[in-house]
Design goal:
single chain; about 200 residues; alpha+beta; 2 domains; 8 helices; globular
């Protein structure tokens, strides 16, 4: 169901069904060759190709990467869409992104917003709406004995996490993603840089 919806609606990936089919044809065999070469490069107790099969086939890996890159959907949400573990999505995106880059699927030249200040000034100058949201990402519990171990415990979700602030445009396109902070960091901490400027923006 997720595959059919993503392919049928161009707004999700920015690509038509024909272009996605071309990417699958061009990159699918290359991904398979590299995957097999990686398996054969280390000592094994069973033959290459034996054992459990991929639950996430290449076309779904490609779609997950495209959806992540276009509207910035998180790995957790993609894992729910494709009914796999979050680590599977993370690994799939890490495998597909280099293939897309080799094919020339890179960011087009134009406006570059590298810092939060540049994003805020751009929104203010263009009188566009921005959406600011603090997002928590679950992480493994830091090793015992680490001095700042307790800082990763989120007071909101009571779990070990890191937090980042994401700024998108009114159309949902990601404009800025901040460096990660420990999960105990309050959401209000991220609002201080924004308070120095006066663009038209909304907090979600």
């Amino acid at each position: 169901m997720s595959r059919a919806v993503i392919i049928s609606d161009r707004r999700i990936t920015g690509l038509s069904a024909d272009v996605i089919s071309e990417l699958v044809a061009d990159l699918g065999s290359l991904w398979h060759e590299r995957h097999q070469a990686k398996l054969a490069s280390r000592p094994r107790k069973r033959a290459v190709g034996a054992g459990a099969k991929h639950r996430l086939v290449f076309v779904d890996r490609l779609l997950a990467a495209l959806v992540h890159l276009r509207p910035g959907v998180t790995h957790d949400v993609l894992a729910c869409w494709f009914d796999v573990d979050r680590s599977t999505i993370t690994r799939a995106i890490g495998e597909v992104r280099p293939l897309l880059a080799e094919r020339g699927c890179t960011v087009s030249p134009g406006l570059r917003l590298r810092t939060l200040a540049e994003v805020v000034n751009h929104l203010g100058a263009s009188r566009k709406t921005g959406i600011v949201d603090g997002t928590e990402i679950r992480v493994r519990r830091p090793a015992a004995g680490r001095k700042d171990r307790d800082k990763f415990v989120s007071g909101k979700n009571k779990q070990n996490a890191v937090k980042t602030m994401v700024v998108t445009g009114g159309d949902g396109r990601v404009l800025f993603c901040s460096p990660t902070m420990p999960g105990s960091c309050a959401d209000m901490w991220w609002s201080y840089p924004c308070a120095r400027a006066t663009p038209i923006w909304s907090a979600r």
